[in-house]
Amino acid sequence: MEVLIITYGSRGDVQPYVALGRGLQDAGHEVMLATSVRFEEFVESNGLAYGYLNDDLLSIIDTDQGKELIEKAGNLYEIAKRTYTMARQVAPLQKQLMRESWEVAKTFQPDFIVFHSKGGAAPHIAEKLGIGCALATPIPMFVPTGAWRFVVAPDWNLGAWYNRASYRLIHLLVNRVWRKYVRSFRAGLDLPPIAEFDFLKEADGTPIPIIHAHSEAVLPRPDDWPDYAYITGYWFLDGPNDWEPPQTLTDFLEAGPPPVYVGFGSMAGRDPKRMAEIVVEALQRVGLRGIIATGWGGLSADDLPETILKIDEAPHEWLFPKMAAVVHHGGAGTTAAGLRAGKPSVLVPFFADQPFWASRVYALGAGPKAIPRKRLTVDKLAAALKEATTNQDIIDKAASLGAEIRKEHGVANAVGLIERLAKVSELS
Prior knowledge:
CATH architecture of the largest domain: 3-Layer(aba) Sandwich
Number of domains: 2
Structural class: alpha/beta
Shape: globular
Distance between the termini: 17 Å
Order of helices and strands: EHEHEHHHHEHEHEEHEHEEHEHEHHHH
Strand order of the largest sheet: 3-2-1-4-5-6-7
């Protein structure tokens, strides 16, 4: 079977799908992964065929306007307001990505498509080719439930009615935006218009299967989910077995007690240096050794004391188990890696789904209460670090949760599910 995977976004939006692609390939399927050209080498270095999508939409985030969105957008209202101001700039870029997705599919001729939510052209491409497709997501943000709110909605704790309503509102907004893109795209494919467009349904109203790449140990399946919603477990992309750490990292780990990992990915707004200063002072105040990861620009650290080591990056599956605790922004992938390692997590969420995962870590007892990035101070971070590394209840719960997650086989579960869904689509 030939499987096309379409995803777009930051590395966190790409890495789980690379793991899935490798799993599909190991099971004997041919795989092409289409994503931003900035990840071409990453995709191909993992043995997958690459499908070209341009980088223009991602490049907006690298501008001052995009950094302001990250720095100031702390809730749904702020994100919506700032996104709206960028709408005219984004619209032609989104349409171009849809056309490029179709060019990739025409060339590859897949039997099934797995797509990220930003790959909204996929269901219409699948219809044109007469094949099946499935939406796959690391974030449970599409299937309405009374169990939790839409992940970016305000955490008002108003009960099941509010949780379900938050999904209805978002679906209305998304359908309104995507309807315009889809109308012209379908016309270009010579497909008939859709009378009642719903981004979660095929043209005939059939629900699109939705595959969730998270652990039920972290977020159990709600009782009110429909049967077309699946949970497979996390999709971890483990590095090559022959990876060797730099000697400086090995020496540092052997020179003292387990340190604390600190890394915020590409999150830091416009002042990564100030973020690093807060981290360094907090670690020193509590008397902890630390490793600061600066690889994606989230932290900028120089002139560090001997108790703190700066690294570019290292495989999380190798590094995190050697830590006393992990401090990060709460992205879905990094949260999963920290929990799998069985180490307490200190989360400093910036925006989007990050506060949602931060609240889950706290609810599970695997870390202290999160510190929103806007409220981060040396005092607060020092207190959280002390709690994470001395509270035995947190330490034990994190270890227990990690043991549960390590027993799961998320990629293998997803591969088996995709094989079953593809067979169903062939028969329909």
